[in-house]
Structure formats: structure tokens, C-alpha cells
Amino acid sequence: MPMNIYDNEEFFRSYVKLREGLNYNDLLETPAMLSLIDDIRGKEILDIGCGFGKTDRTFIELGARRVRGMDISEKMIEKAKAENMAEGIEYSVMPAGRLQDIDGLYDIVYSSLCFHYIEDFGKLISDIHSKLRPGGMLLFSQEHPITTADYEGGFSEDSRRYTFSSYQREGTRVSEWFVDGVVTYHRTFSTIITEIVRRGFRIDTVLEPKPSESAIRMLPRIEREYEKPSFLIVKSYKN
Amino acid sequence: MPMNIYDNEEFFRSYVKLREGLNYNDLLETPAMLSLIDDIRGKEILDIGCGFGKTDRTFIELGARRVRGMDISEKMIEKAKAENMAEGIEYSVMPAGRLQDIDGLYDIVYSSLCFHYIEDFGKLISDIHSKLRPGGMLLFSQEHPITTADYEGGFSEDSRRYTFSSYQREGTRVSEWFVDGVVTYHRTFSTIITEIVRRGFRIDTVLEPKPSESAIRMLPRIEREYEKPSFLIVKSYKN
Question: Which of A207, B74, B130, B237 is buried most deeply by CB count within 10 Å?
């Protein structure tokens, strides 16, 4: 059973609240992701783990021809359909593990903060490869491997130092995020990069986004990203 | 003035002693590096920061046609010439910054634990690119970015957890390693990988080597590599 914490009532309420306030996604991760898309005009985009669909509507506004947003969570897709529908967008409730059921080919596969929930990373990348046109782009973000290594680690009280362990022990991690028992999968940096290459992609850019000065003014604690990054972003092209 | 701590008398004595005993290089880094060389027979190899030249002699024994070892340290090259000379090997005292003075082209550029001493990483990679034949391989190891981020960090007393900071602050680090004032340069994963791509290479493999069971039996404290890796290895090919 793939992880679908987002349909838990309590989790969903807390998550919606998080995303309504100033948050790391809007201040750090999404701008970094969007900065890596060369030219979106006329493109067909598949968004894996699309959530509320906010970025999918942005894609259409920036000139994408067609966007397909998929998410395992019914609640997310419901909210996406209610709030971020536009001509050219199609939303479906579907886990990443069922990518092979999607028809058609895409120019861009985009995925924001979803891959650390996926157990079989190699299969995921191969499935994505089969859904991309030749030369197509895979752009994804995930929790940074230093973060996924050890959710029991964390910042010192003054936010100046970060402590962790178990970086080389890949596999399941269970943590508490709004609710107990959120399951993610830790993979090292080397596994992530090497799997992408082995499954038929050419690495273009790796980015560990840093907060801007204005982001720090708006949300001062985001400055601790300078000590330890929260996100890893990889841009690659299908060979 | 490029870093050349290895010609400091006290440092050199301590370093020789370290390398004579059981050490991370012989148990972890060198085997991992050698495992990534596809076929060495008939190849011409340039070794940047060759040190004692032990690996260069191994290259010749494994069938390399020609090996050029360069190192900034006179003491290292003296020891290499005395202990690891073989037909087909040439050793020179030369800093990595003077790569453009080397004539000829190579099939493989190899560099073990040297690049974290180099200030201008982009120039280094471009210089290497110009010394490789088309399709040639660049294989290097360096101190892991989590390590170079913060030499004031370190393991907890029980070696179970690792604390660091300043990952996103790239630049000079001054540490104590046998002697005071060893200067290295911290770069993030993303800078390392993205620069290699930008300078004309295709990333093939990224490896953060893990100690084998036999290595742990021989040197029990190397087990803490499971919490936090010491080395980053990158294999890439010239486009």
C-alpha cells in the first residue's frame, strides 16, 4: 500500500494550514524549481504528486499546452479541481506506482517533494523514462538526503548546528509530521544520481536551494537552511 | 600560493606514519576508486596529486601503458620516485593549477583526495577537459561535502551521531590535521556535480563508499562511516 498520509483528516487540515502561511515551499522550493524550466510554452507536462495543483495552473499561465496532475490523495485532487482548474489541465487520483496506466507522452515530467514517499526509486525513474518524449526533461525535488537520513536528528536550540546519523543506511524511515507514522524512504545522494543515469537520463543540474534575503526577512527561521539544506533538486534529460 | 602542507616536515612525518598503518584510504577510498575503472589496459593515465605513487604503480601492474603522476609536494614525488617507480611511469613536482603546462592527451584523469585543496574548481575541471581524449574518463575522490562544510563539527562521543553546520557557505576552511592551518575549500554537492556538467562532462557514477565487513574487523572505528561518509567519488566522461 503506497503512502497516502494526505487523506488523513487531521493531517490534511494541518497541511492546508501550513501551505496557507509563509512556508518553505513557496519561499524556497517552488521558485528554485520554476527557475530550472527552460521554456514551457507549448509543452505537455506530467506532474507527479501535484497536490493542490497550484503549480499546474502556473504552468498553464506560463504557456504550457497541456498539464496532467496526478496525486494519490483524493482530498488533494478535490481541492485542485475546485481551486486550480484551467483549460488544458486534467487532474487524476493516481499513485506514482501506476504511471504505466497513463497514456500519451510528455515533454516534461515535474515532481515536487513526492519522490521520498516512493519505495522503488529505480522503477519510478524507468516508468518516467517511458512517459517522456526523446530529449524530454525530468525535474524533481525531494527532501534532502541529509534530512531523510535521520528524522530524529535536528537543529541545535540556536539553529546553528545540525545533528544526524545513519546516512548510509538506506530504506524506510517513520516520522511524525502533524500525525504519527509518516513513512518515507531514505536514499543517499549517490544512489539518487546514479540510478537516474542508469535508467537512461543525462544529469543537467543539481540544486540545493538557498533562501533569498527577502525570504529570510519574511520567515527568519528559514536562514538555518544555510547550515543544512532541506531540499534536493535534480534536473535531467532523457537520453 | 596553492596549498602544499605536504612539504611541511612535521606534517609529512605524521602523514607517512598514518598511511603506513591501517587507514581509510587503503580500506575504503582506494578500493572504491579502482572498482570504477572499467578497463585500464593500454591506457594513458594522468594522476593529479599522486602522492607516494602507490596507485600509479598499481595502474602499470594492471596493464596501463603510461602513467604520469604529478604532485605539488617535492617530498611526495621524492618518495614516489624512490618507492613506486616502474617502466611507463613519470613523476613530476607540479601543482594542479599548472595542468596546462602538461603536454599530450590522456585516456583517464585520476585524482585521489586532492580536489578539496583546489580553490578554482571550475578552472580545474576545464583544464582536465582539455587534457582528455574525446570520451576520456575523469575519476576523482574528495572529502565529502558534509565533512568539508565544517571541520569544527564531528562525531558524538559514541560515534553514533554527527554534527555540522555551514553546508551552504562555500569557500575556504582552515583546519588542524597534524599541523595547524591546513586550508581546504568547501563546495556543495550541487556545485560539484553541476560544474562538472557545465564544463563538458557527462556524469556516470557518484559513489559515497561504505566500509566492508572485513574493513570494520580490521579497523573497528571505520564503522562510523555508516553514520556520515568521509568521501565523495565522481566518475564522468568527457563529452
Answer: A207
Chain B residues whose beta carbon lies within 8 Å of the beta carbon of residue A210: 168
CA A207/CA A211 separation, integer angstroms: 12
Neighbours of A18 (CB within 10 A): 14
Query: Cβ separation of A226 and B162 shorter than 8 Å?
Result: no
Contact (Cβ atoms closer than 8 angstroms) between residue B173 and residue B191: no
Contact B222, B215 (CB under 8 A): yes
Rounded CA gap, B65 and B55, in Å? Answer: 14
pLDDT band at A9 (very low <50, low <70, confident <90, very high): confident
How many Å lie between the alpha carbon of B188 and the closest alpha carbon of chain A?
8
Cell of B14: 605524521
Is residue A209 a contact partner of residue A133, using CB atoms and an 8 Å limit? Answer: no
SS3 category, B231: strand
Query: For B29-46, what is each residue's pLDDT tens digit?
Result: 999 999 999 899 999 999
Chain A residues whose beta carbon lies within 8 Å of the beta carbon of residue B232: 190
pLDDT digits (tens, 9 = 90+) for A42-57: 999 999 999 999 999 9
- Chain A residues with CB under 8 Å of B152 CB are none
The distance from CA A63 to its chain's CA centroid, rounded to whole angstroms, is 22
Phi then psi dihedrals of residue A34, to 5 deg: -65, -30
Q: What angle do CA B30, B36, B239 make, to 5 degrees?
A: 125
Whole-angstrom Cα distance, residue A184 to residue B44? 45
Residue B220: burial class (beta carbons within 10 Å; 0-12, 13-18, 19+): exposed
Distance CA B159, CA B175 (A): 20
* Residue showing cell 481551486: A83
pLDDT of residue A1 exceeding 60: no
Report which secondary-structure segment, H or E, holds A92: strand A89-93
Residue A107 to residue A68: CA distance in whole angstroms: 12
B121: its cell numbers: 574548481
pLDDT at A21: 80
In order, the DSSP letters of B106-149 are EEEEEEES-GGG-S-HHHHHHHHHHHEEEEEEEEEEEE-HHHHT
- State the first-to-last Cα distance of chain B, in angstroms, to the nearest integer: 32
CB atoms within 10 A of CB A25: 19
CA distance B190 to chain A (A): 5
- The model carries a pTM of 0.95
